[in-house]
Write a structure and sequence with these properties.
Length: about 325
């Protein structure tokens, strides 16, 4: 069913930190350790460690080449960076920050990574070859691969053995059996054209989708259909994340956030497991390169594109990225 309008409500968030990233290379990933006290940001051929409280850099890891994606395993204290040229997977330790191993990738040029803690598996997506390879985190071995049709977008796992992939050109969500890496079929994205962003609730039964036309939907994965849709807002591709009690126990029950090229952060609010509403938007002054939620610290981190200003001033700032750290407004519990 279609629920209400997108709404013009502004999300009750404030800027806690603005952190300049002095590089023309885009931010390819943001992650956190298990305590939420340390952040890890992949930019170009480096991974920077930051102290969350002070936003100060505490370490830097030099990669063999520029990373196109990064994923963090907070429980085991490991990180993974995918490199396109040459196609490699760099495994690194968080404490202290150092490279553990480098693994060649032979399933196509990597585009995205997803770490599934329930499976202790890492999924490596190649949009060039429309494939997803599964790697066992414990052994470091490749254990399977699936080839999909269409243009794959964001991945999400339900912690019950199913991997979901946004099929942008097919207007559907592809379901993959994680153990056999078999294609189980597709769920059409009703009222949502060009799905790119995907996030799953921790229970593994609600799938949140953001689409290029600005629409968002909630899918019941048990029955395989869209049971709630929200009208199209500002169009553009986006990434999506979900968390229960994203800003503390006194706030929302849960929320799905999406942000991308359209200059805004949007939220779907979970009022109950079967009831959702448009939570509002927050204006951003740039395109979003990466988004991550630091639940222990109650923070939302976004990497924004900062192009060089159109000017003849030689002292104008060069193209770079900026990390925006958002927290609930004082006296508010979003």
């Amino acid at each position: 069913m279609v629920s209400g309008s997108l709404g013009a409500t502004e999300l009750p968030l404030r800027v806690s930190h603005r952190i300049a990233v002095p590089s023309a290379a885009p931010v390819s990933g943001i992650g956190f350790d298990a305590t939420g006290a340390h952040a890890y940001v992949a930019t170009g051929a480096t991974v920077d460690a930051l102290d969350v409280a002070s936003a100060r850099q505490t370490g830097t890891l030099q990669l063999p080449a520029a990373a196109v994606a990064m994923a963090i395993d907070p429980q085991d204290g490991k990180g993974y960076a995918a490199i396109a040229a040459p196609s490699e997977l760099v495994v690194f330790q968080l404490h202290p920050l150092h490279i553990e191993s480098t693994i060649p990738l032979r399933d196509g040029v990597p585009s995205a990574l997803l770490y599934a803690s329930s499976e202790r598996a890492l999924y490596v997506l190649s949009r060039a070859s429309s494939t997803i390879a599964r790697w066992d985190a414990a052994s470091g071995k490749r254990t399977g691969q699936v080839r999909l049709s269409g243009k794959p977008g964001q991945m999400a796992t339900n912690a019950r053995g199913t991997l979901y992939v946004a099929n942008t050109t097919g207007n559907a969500i592809d379901a993959v059996d994680e153990h056999g890496m078999n294609n189980l079929g597709a769920i059409p994205t009703k009222d949502c054209v060009g799905p790119t962003g995907l996030a799953m609730d921790p229970i593994g039964r609600r799938l949140f989708v953001s689409c290029q036309d600005g629409a968002r939907t909630v899918i019941d994965t048990d029955l395989g259909f869209t049971f709630e849709s929200f009208p199209a807002g500002t169009p553009g591709p986006s990434q999506m994340i979900f968390a229960m009690h994203p800003f503390g126990a006194g706030g929302w029950k849960g929320a799905a956030f999406n942000a991308g090229d359209n200059g805004e952060l949007a939220a779907l609010r979970m009022n109950a497991f079967v009831n959702y509403s448009a939570g509002g938007t927050y204006a951003l002054d740039g395109k979003v390169q990466a988004i991550a939620l630091n639940a222990p610290a109650g923070q939302l981190w976004l990497a924004l594109d900062r192009p060089r200003p159109t000017t003849t001033d030689a002292n104008a700032p060069a193209e770079h990225a900026e990390l925006l750290v958002l927290t609930p407004s004082e006296g508010c519990t979003p």
